[in-house]
Predict the 3D structure of the following.
Amino acid sequence: MIRYWPGLLVASLVGALTLGTLGAVAWRAPIWGGLGSEDWGAIRFTLLQAVMSAVISVALAVPVARALARRSFPGKPVLVTLLGASFILPVIVAVLGLLAIFGRNGLLSTALGWVGLPPVQIYGLHGVVLAHVFFNMPLATRMILQGWLSMPAERFRLAASLGFGSRDTARLLEWPMLCTVLPGTAMVIFVICATSFAVALALGGGPKATTVELAIYQAFRFDFDLGKAALLGVVQFAICAVAAAVMFRVHVPESTGGGLDRAVARWDVHTPVLRGLDMTWIGFATIFLLLPLGMVLLAGLPGLVNLPGSVAGAAARSISVALVSAGLTVLAALSMAVAIQGLRVRRVSKVIEGIGYLSIAASPLVIGTGMFIVIFPFANPVALALPVTALVNVAMSLPFALRAIVPALTEVEGRFGHLADSLSLTGWARLRWLYLPRLRRPLGFSAGLAAALSMGDLGVIALFSDPKAATLPLQLYQLMAAYRMQEAAGVALILLVLSLAVFWLFDRGGG
């Protein structure tokens, strides 16, 4: 039990950070009032946009994933990598790219003006859904693509020998696989969209387009109504918890047998019609993903000339917060993974793992405000805005790090654990000679993901930071709010490059 105490300690701290901070906000609130009509409107809008975003993302991802699974073409590995990289893009940067295409002065509105049609209105429900689909359709494609690639080649060989056509293969082979993959994919995207803040802040707003997360922000920032904020935080946590329960309830386990790990070959997809259809979907996904980023690049290059002097300081603060978040995330995830793996025969491992995934359903704004309420009697909260932001980013990145490290550590212990025990490798020696060499890849990926997500975060820092000590995302939002779009484009380009750079450096170092 001695070597598991770091993981138990980290789990206790994470539990206090997620549930304890919500309790602190509720305790500080003088009176818990009921939900008003605007609050119920925010709840309805949150559910509506999350459901629409999840459904549309999954519906578009299925044909794209199918096309990628059954076609080979030059640049396919690069495209698949870009699909995965979209998850780490700074939200506010992507929003700026979408505005360059779908905004009032964007490419689409300009083209419509040429034929006498009114410009596109991106703000509101359709704008929020569009941004969420941009972020989550590539993520859904990657998740569904894994389901296609995991299907044994022997099934398709048997289908070909039985004379199956494309429809028969889809009905008897592909649809059962989708039944196992789609529920989890849809619910993951639902939770991500339900807890989205930056998208709703930039493209939503107003009584008819306010999410629960944005309502929490407004209650804190403008009304300082802690009772309403705490109640909305509980509501949001309940929404995400119900989504997780539904995901496990509707998941259909795979019941067919495995194969011999041969390369998948398809004999039912070589008609010109299907080939053209697949390439159309692949082209759509490529344009939909790369065009907004290309617009950020084109608009950002001229904007680099007239950047405010505060950008350098904001970049330094963002990099510092990202590095601290990455280091703490890796330490926390590795400690908890060791405890989870070592105590797997006991029920406490499930509790530790559940606490690690708990933060994905919590509100970063409520966590941050709870921490400020706790530390307010002892220190100036504004002066500690950056450390608090780093800790909240660690809590938000921890579920993804655990998902990468826990399976890898379980495999390492299964293969080498008995040998390490026979050599009396414990403590630091076990960490140095067994875990670190074998876990370099998932540790590097987790550090890169945490650093990139922290670089683009616009959550707690928007609530409590001094405007003179802003990070890059907050600096970008301030420039957009002041309609200094050329300078905002330059900051967006810097933020995009730095986010991708920190992820690449950590991921490549681990690899």
